[in-house]
Amino acid sequence: MSVKVKFYSLFKLNLKTSGIEYEINSSITVSDLLKKLDEDFDGYFSEKLLEGGTITPGSIILINGQNIFHIDKLNSKINDGDIVTLFPPAAGG
Has residue 62 been placed in a domain? Predict the structure, then answer.
């Protein structure tokens, strides 16, 4: 199963990559994917995207362009060929 993960904004700048692709043997959730990303990026994504076990306000996680808040949040299923897009929390004014 192939899953593409795209990084935008500060993620792309700080990690010096626009994304990563994984070959995964079985269906996973967004939560599982974040754990895998943390293994490869030293806990970076949980630190930036999660707060108290939930998604940090202002963060955006999309599966094929659909916000996971409208699916099943961190329990949203990721399927073969899906593209997961990660945006860091937005701030400013």
Answer: yes
Interacting residues of 11 by C-beta distance below 8 A, sequence separation 6+: 48, 86, 87, 88
Which pLDDT tens digit goes with each residue over 60-92? Answer: 999 999 999 999 999 999 999 999 999 999 876
Length of the chain as a residue count: 93
**Does 61 map to a domain?**
yes
Does some domain include residue 69?
yes
Q: Mean pLDDT over all residues of the chain?
A: 94
Q: Are 68 and 60 in contact (CB under 8 A)?
A: no
Q: What is the pLDDT of residue 92?
A: 65
Instruction: Using alpha carbons, select from 88, 84, 6, 82 the residue that is nearest to residue 47.
Output: 88
Which residue range is the domain that position 62 belongs to?
2-87
The H-or-E segment that residue 86 falls in is: strand 83-87
